[in-house]
Amino acid sequence: MHLQKLSREEIIRKLKEYASEDFEPKSGKLFTIAFEPGIEELKEIIFDAWKMYAEKNMLDFTEFPSAIKLEKDVIDIARSLMNGDKDVVGTYTFGGTESVFLAVKAARDNFLLKKGFTSLPEIVMPVTAHPCYEKAAEYMGLKVKRVRVNTETYRADPDAINEAITENTAMIVGSTPNWPFGTVDPIEELAEIALDKDLWLHVDACVGGFVLPFMRKLGEKIPEFDFKIDGVTSISMDPHKYAYSAIGASIVLFRKSFYKMLSQYANLRWPGYPIVNPAVLSSRSEGPLAATWAVLHYLGEDGYTELARRILNARKKILGGLKELGYKIMGDPTVIIAFTSNEINLFKLCDEMVKKGWVFLAQKGIANIDIPPSVHLTLTPVHENLADDMIKELSECTENLKSIPKSDLEEFIETFGLMMNFLMPTEMDLASISRLLSEIERYMATYGPKLLEALGFEKGLTREMAVVNQMFNSLPPEIAEPLVNYVVIELFRRG
Ligand SMILES: Cc1ncc(COP(=O)(O)O)c(C=O)c1O
Q: Which fold has domain 49-294?
């Protein structure tokens, strides 16, 4: 059996060793999924709260009624931030994806109740909406239509949404802001469509829910996006993003209690205890909920306003620096900046910055709807003091990359990708997808190890991701997705 006993010291030593190649969120050099407020005491409070409640299980709130009290308080805060009235109810979940799953389930069931079963219910959303909607759709039997956005503003195009709606549409989505570009969709216009066509409108405020209201207080022009607008049916917002809570914290709010009922799961059909799950998971530690309650009250309105101010300062410095270096800013950024360039290989730029310890996210864009590749920067309060250093090093990397021409391999991947995209049908039916997957299973057995070697993964993870990014991003998603799954399975298998 592969189960070795270790001493307490050995366990700690080993855990430190495993973490040795991780980037440190506290360094402030991550512009990704690390929401770092830069307040040491806040971390202590979060982890104290977490530890106090770690062993309590939200599954049985009759055994641990604190789960009800903590959740009610946290939901009340979220509801007031989103201007919800007393009918608005919510659920605490472990992440934005889980919140979206609940909203999609409720929207699907509401659609089926109203219309009776027709064909697959559909979600219509801008191409910039997070993939968790497709994930929810895949798990729960819906179909997603992604539609073009305005390529000047990178905001949802209400006409495009309107055109894509059919009698099978169950839900439309707007993001505030979206993850790729940090731009806020026109929720008021989407709400008009939703009211007119009697559709569920979900506002994805996973990123912005806990920060945009405070930016607005500081004078920023942020379009309305909450329950003040008739036609908004549900909103998701994540304390583990800009409320700076521990990871495992999201909230979904519903306009009325019946919608929440459609999102829940109850089962009284077995010989065991009654199951009533407000969220997707059943057993859940109360730790993240207690940590969220703690951080919200530790920072309070003033704390969040001050942290929003620091993000605005960071944004001003970084936008200035990027423009001076010749980068084009995509749309009107909020807490996320995306930039692009005709001159610089942005995937390589990300690799060069990683060598200096700065983590940026490379984004592929979508060539056939004029969204170019870009770099994504998630801004956090800790960046206020590091912005100048970052821009200085970015300037050096930019200069170096200007003098490097495209390699033969890059040229090849680009042409190959274009060719594959050209050959691929725009929409695949189930039969073609299953044929493709069985071909891939056959080919991977023979060529999989060669693929890993070619991408530089044969010895595990690499920090040189430019070619990998370019290759996966240039292939049609129907081919790239199974390949990337294969690579990730192998990475985790090999350790
Ligand atoms: C707009 C948006 N919605 C939903 C999600 C999913 O959140 P999570 O990663 O917490 O599941 C994200 C994640 O970045 C997001 O940016």
A: Aspartate Aminotransferase; domain 2 (3.40.640)
